[in-house]
Amino acid sequence: MTDSIIAAIIAASAVIVTSMVSNFLGEAFKRHREKVSVASGLVGELCAYRENIDPAKTVFGAAKNMALGGQHLPMQKIPLQTNRFYEANISKLGMLGPQIAGDVVYVYGHIQAYMVLASMLHEAEDAKHLAGMLSMMLLSIEKAERRGDPLLDALKAIAQSKFRRSLLRP
Known about the structure:
Helix content: over 70%
Largest sheet: none
Strand content: under 5%
Distance between the termini: 44 Å
Structural class: mainly alpha
Number of strands: 0
Number of helices: 5
């Protein structure tokens, strides 16, 4: 009789431990999948911005030089753009780690500064004011680019990472 009770206790313990390990691995996989998804989405959004940096620097650099030469260029109103993926997932940045999360916020801060300035160009009062706004835009682009290029590499590494099933490795 005691052998059957011991066997039942061992069997029940095995079921409980297996269930706990399975649940732990399932949650770890969900977190990994979400981390990979956030990194992948940020890579997509940042790559779209990255492709436009050189043309923007060329166009706005030429406009700045013309404004510095005294030409007041009539500027069209540019609607303020949003960073849809970033804004929808800002609460999940912590899962990328503190360094990468900080870099993401820094880069997007400069992207947003660029966008706000671009949306205000049509309000420039004269050529000097326009040249100043364009200079600030170009500076924002350069800062985002300088920190954004290594950030893209780090995000791509996370996006391509594989799930590790070991309970002992982070």
